[in-house]
Amino acid sequence: MDVYTLAIFAAIVVSGIVLESVKITSVSVFREMAEEYAAGQNEASLKSLEPYWVENHGAVSPRLARPFSPGVLAEGEVVHPVNCAQCHSPARWAFMDYAVSRVITPVAAYLNRAAMRFELCHIHFLVCPVGPRLPSFQQG
Fold first, then answer.
1. Residue pair 28/40 in contact by the 8 Å Cβ criterion
2. Structural domain of residue 17, as residue ranges?
3. Where are the strands (E) in 78-119, listed by range?
4. Distance between CA atoms of 13 and 126, rounded to whole angstroms?
5. What is the helix (H) or strand (E) element at residue 116, kind and residue range?
6. Angle at CA 67, nearest 5°, toward 40 and 28?
7. What is the four-CA torsion angle of 21, 116, 54, 44, rounded to 10 degrees?
8. Which tops the pLDDT comparison, 140 or 4?
9. Domain assignment of residue 2, yes or no
10. Is the model more confident about 73 or about 46?
11. Engineered SS bond to 60: which of 7, 85, 108, 135, CB 3.0-4.6 Å?
12. Would you say residue 138 lies in a domain?
C-alpha cells in the first residue's frame, strides 16, 4: 500500500510540474493572458510585451527572433508592471517548474501547437482524485 501511495503522490507532483512547465513556455497562454488583462494597451505596447516575456519569463515564441532591441525590451518592462505584475510573480520563483521549462524549451513550440497543456491538465486532474480512493488497509 505504501508503494501505491507514493506512486500516486509522485504522479500528482510530476504531472503538476510538467503542466506548469509547459504553461510557462506556452506563447498561447501568454497571448490569452495579454488579450484578457492588457486589452486597454495599444498594439505597439502589446508587441513589446511578448519579447519581454520571452526574455524574462520563459515564454517561447517561434515568430520572434533574438536578440531583441533594448528599446522593445524597455517598453515591455514598462507595460509589464501595469498589466501583468499584479498577477504574476517571476517564473524563476517556481524553481522546479522553471527548471523543467528550460529543459523543454527546444520542443516548446511543438508542445504549444499540439495543445499539450490541455492533455497534461486532463492527466493531472484525473490523477488527483485517485489518491483519496486508496484501498482500506484492514488488519485481522
1. no
2. 9-130
3. none
4. 13
5. helix 116-127
6. 45
7. -140
8. 4
9. no
10. 73
11. 108
12. no
What is the DSSP secondary structure assignment for residue 73, as one 8-state letter?
H
Task: Report CA-CA distances (Å) from 23 to 6, 81, 105, 127.
Answer: 26, 20, 11, 19
Judge whether 67 lies within some domain.
yes
pLDDT score for 2: 77
Q: Give the lowest-confidence range in 32-46, 82-96, 114-128.
A: 32-46
- Cα separation, 101 vs 108, in Å, equals 8
> DSSP for 1-28?
-HHHHHHHHHHHHHHHHHHHHHHHHBHH
Contact 25, 101 (CB under 8 A): yes
d(CA 1, CA 3): 5
Q: DSSP secondary structure string, 26-59?
A: BHHHHHHHHHHHSTTS-HHHHHHHHHHHHHHH--
Cell representation of residue 16: 503538476
* All residues at 6 or more sequence positions from 83 whose CB lies less than 8 Å from its CB, including other chains: 34, 37, 38, 41, 49
End-to-end, the C-alpha distance of the chain in Å comes to 16
Quick one: pLDDT at residue 105?
Answer: 93
